[in-house]
Design a protein that fits this description.
The protein has about 300 residues and is an alpha/beta fold. About 50% of the residues lie in helices and about 15% in strands. Strands 3-2-1-4-5-6 form a six-stranded parallel β-sheet, sandwiched between helices. The longest helix is centred in the middle third of the chain and has 29 residues. It binds nicotinamide-adenine-dinucleotide (NAD).
Length: about 300
Amino acid sequence: MSTIGWVGLGNMGRPMTANLVKAGHTVNGFDLVPEAVAAAAEHGVTAVGSIAEAVAGADIVFTMLPKGEHARTAYLEPNGVLANADTKTLLVDSSTIDFDSARALHSEAAKAGFRFVDGPVSGGVTGAEAGTLTFMLGGTDEDVAEAKSFIEAMAGNMFHAGGEAAGQAAKIVNNMMLSISLQGVVEGAVLAERFGLDPKVFYDIATVSSGDSWPLRTWYPVPGVTETAASNNAFKPGFAAALMHKDVELAVAGAETQGLDLPAAQLVHAQLQKLVDEGLEGLDTSALIRNIDPKAAGLPE
Ligand code: NAD
């Protein structure tokens, strides 16, 4: 079995490392927050006190950090990954970060003689715990194949999305499309109700009609309609509005760098911003319904 260096032991990193330990790997884990390291040590991660210690002797290093700025720091600073790892070590960033940072990390890693793969995930904390995350991987065929042999223990699906930053691109575009469909669903749910339709009857019609979509089927924002919806559970996440806000922001910023105007993405970003401004970013993303009807059923007071 192998030695794995891991940087970032938060909500996702903690359960992901637990699955690597279960698969028999030695995982040397570091986080800036000592409590996060201690919690990971409880499920068998070897606690270390710096990035340099985490990457020492590792066959592969994973990073699971909040945003592009954190990933740049962790890789590029003098006490970071590139300055301290052996160039034989394969590097995988599984954080969801902006497209430009992902490309910069690929190019800085290559300049320093490293192989680098971007590998963001979807599936949330429950997917991380169950070892069923979807990984979207960007890099060369050989590097992605090697990364997959380690990722297997954490994944339900692994896709080689393409070359450098293709994993981030796939993740960002997917979540942008999801948020736009969801905005349609929350508007539709309120209008259907105002027209006097029974929510369950409307749901049954729409799920077999042309208005069907994944958020309609999975996240219908009215309690008692579909089992998997956060609306049944006072809009507890699920997928927090804060995370979707970040992902749509990455899409809007990425579009700007490509000279693109994406009006629907901008609109849904503004709707998510309203939730953030009201301190409601901890609710599920389907709480977007609150902007249409502040008294929608199931919302917390
Ligand atoms: P988190 O904030 O819980 O954990 C991130 C950890 O990184 C924190 O413990 C923080 O202390 C640590 N960190 C930051 N900078 C560091 C540095 N320089 N060195 C060492 N540690 C550092 O975030 P999370 O929920 O685990 O998410 C991680 C990434 O996964 C994010 O990019 C997020 O968008 C993505 N993601 C999250 C989910 C989810 O449901 N939580 C789902 C899919 C993808």
